[in-house]
Amino acid sequence: MKKIFPIILIFLILGAIFAVNNVKTRINAPSQNTQTVLLEIPKGSSPLKVSQILHQNGVWTDEMAFKIWCRLNQPALKAGWFEIAPKQTLDEIMALMTSGKNAVRKVTIPEGRASWEMPFYLKKAFPNLDEDRWNALVQDPRFARSLGVEANSLEGYLLPETYPFPIDANEETILKQMVKANLKVRTDFENRPGSNWKELGNWHRVLTLASVVEEETGKPEERPLIAGVFTNRLRIDMPLGADPTVRFIFKNLTGPIYKSQLNSDSPYNTRKFKGLMPGPISNPGRKAIEAALFPAKTDALYFVAKDDGSGTHFFSSNLKDHNKYKDIAAKNRGE
Prior knowledge:
By secondary structure, the chain is mostly helical. The protein has helices at residues 4-27, 47-56, 63-73, 90-99, 119-122, 131-138, 141-146, 171-190, 197-200, 203-216, 223-235, 243-250, 259-262, 286-293, 319-332, and strands spanning 37-41, 80-84, 104-108, 162-166, 302-305, 313-316. It has a two-stranded antiparallel ribbon with strand order 1-2. Helix 10 packs across helix 11 (223-235) and helix 11 (223-235) packs across helix 14 (286-293). It is elongated and about 115 Å long. The N and C termini lie far apart (113 Å). The model has no long low-confidence stretch (mean pLDDT 89).
């Protein structure tokens, strides 16, 4: 027995080394999926449940290796949606599932879009988005107030930017995220000295003015000047005279504006009525909001597009110069 025992011990040691190496090899093996797999881990899922989900989705089929890994590491698994890239090790898969970094879809909403234009961009990432529900929520005063918006609509409160929306986002969660971003901008600007906040009165009126500024120019460097013109007009009780507000009434984004439209009795018709409209006509970005709060100091009361391909405007302080610039713009258009 004294001669046999060392031999048995050697075999046991070799067997243990083989078993350990075998487990390491199995744990470090790449996942079986050859394409990125999107899967959901429900809240409260046990390691066994997670193992079953990975197996069912063809990501990781070695349940014993998974069980051993969990016993060794005691992971704090998170619920949510996860995108598993091909050929991931178990360490990499579990690092993702314990990080809480849920799968997202990035969507860029351009500046100056009205709420009803936004589904066009959102549907690229969320093809099942319900436009009717989207529009209904935007126009629901109770929903607006539940998000901290003191207005009858969310128009103007949907901040344009690039968002990482959760993979399972719906109309309500998307709107909540966009409004939250808008109200964060409000917090950023609220106490900044030297702004027009008190003169405008409240955040709703700031967004209302900013939305017109946004629609009047695509040139960031011109926004403070445009805002300066509108601020001057408000101060002397002169109509803003902004064509985009008429376009908003009829959802007439391009093409001519007809005389019948200019005669509209809608309170959004700033060609006919003085002062600000009841609310925003689009959703302004941060730069347009900043321009409304910090307009350029100017004596200009008029501006007209140059129509020379530059996308910029002529600015003037009197009607005579304004008409002169209108003539130049007409010649630039070949009229």
